[in-house]
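Case study.
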Amino acid sequence: MLKRILSSGKARAAVKRLSEEPSARNYLALGQLHASAGKLGEVERVCLEGLEVYPDNAELKRLLARARQLRREDRMREVQSQLKTSPRPALWRELCEIHLESGRVARAEEVADEWFFATEEGEAMMMRAKARCERFFADRRRDDGRRAHELLHETLQLLPGDKRPLRLLLDLTSRAGAWQDARSAIARLLELSPGDPALEARFRTVMALAERSGDFDQALRAVERSGRLADEDPDADRRATSGSVRPMLKELAGQSGVRGAFYVRGGTALVQGPRGATAERTARGVREVIQASRTAARRLGLGQPEEIRAEGDFGTLLARPGSTGASALWSTEKPTNKQIATLDELTATAQSNLEEQS
Amino acid sequence: MKDVLDPLIRIPGVRLALLISKDGVPIASAKGDAGRSSEETDRAETAEELEAFCGLAAGWFGELHRAVDPLAWDRPNRISMRCARGTLVMQDCERVILTVLLHRGVVIDELRLPMGSAITRLERNRRRGMTEQRESDSQHTNDGPPGLFPGVSRSLNGDGTDVRTQNEVPETSGER
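After joint prediction, the assembly is written out as follows.
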């Protein structure tokens, strides 16, 4: 009770400060106060309002994502308890979707398997296929792609005339770059929706690509080898990442013990610290470390790497890869928590800038 | 090898501890906690999978070494990778790589001291093995049955140490 009174007093003061000075820091302070009081809906509202004014703020984005995650977890617990008393398809589906939104694809697949073995419904099979497709898009492993393909064909047998598995099949095959399979998926979709202009346009594009593409297995092998899906633009790597990344790198490189700070994305690297040929050589080395680690993590079945660390007489090389680029730090001492947080912010900022550009 | 890996797998959160040769051949393995869910199912359940896992892990270790070679840095002696479904830590120890696979969420630094101890135990075992080998070799030379082929004759000097003759031509027929 006392805590509630105190927190409401603090919240009122935070609201007052925000109305006097609507800065990102004040939005964040108010959001954090609501979070500590457990008002997740309020946190979400404040973060969204703040992001309308400051769309680049990484801290607000992080708080919003955390609040949403906590709400999903609350709902997941409710759904799980309801499933124990009265299992029904709507609850199974919702639970699978919560797991998928939270990035727990294997757990989503487990729930979908459970649902399918309990009911043998086409919807459950569809969810199994969806979860496996998500797993393939995240990890880019050939086995996952092949299994997703099989599950989608089983779904099509259980749900004939349903467009959703065909759309998912089209998504899978075109993202893998298997244009012949994509062409046949579009052809089947056109049978169900004849004259759809978007599908017809896509069919014409895919027709041209299908002539010089291999089969599905070859496409999966290429994805596993390169770690890149067919719809990922390789030129995006060469685009300038941002003006705001460089000052952050500069600030990191200026700290004591830091020998170099890097932001690497595809073939491009921004470097602060080493100069001239050394900068180029070091950036190439860091890029190779990150690429080799991404490939190894995928092959070892460990999923996307979140942190790569190499230690030796040279010091520590720490890389924090994001979904596209990666920031890295070469330091003679052990990197501090603040430096690690700056690396994360750097990766998030570059990512959000890239999303804006696209 | 058991005494090297066993203390590691007793640490909460350790899924697998391995000793791998530099070319990716598994030398010894020990399993710790089973995966908490299918998110963390081991890809090293069977012997074949274990061999593949060791090959891939050693391949990554080698690739990282090759990547830093042009930088005039010394080779990294410890590498780690925290991923969505687990963490892999590898530490170099002369001819072998000590590898540990952890559950997601386990702090890598907690393994620093136990892995250091494991490497010390490994080196001590190796030194002990070398000493024993040397002793058994010398015993074999002195007490073994006479050789079939002509060899360099040996004689013991006054203080009992082995003295070889400088003459390469055998002084005897080879049979003593």
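Observations recorded in class. Chain B is about 35% helix and 25% strand. The helical segments of chain B are 2-9, 47-68, 112-143. We will return to this complex in the next lecture.
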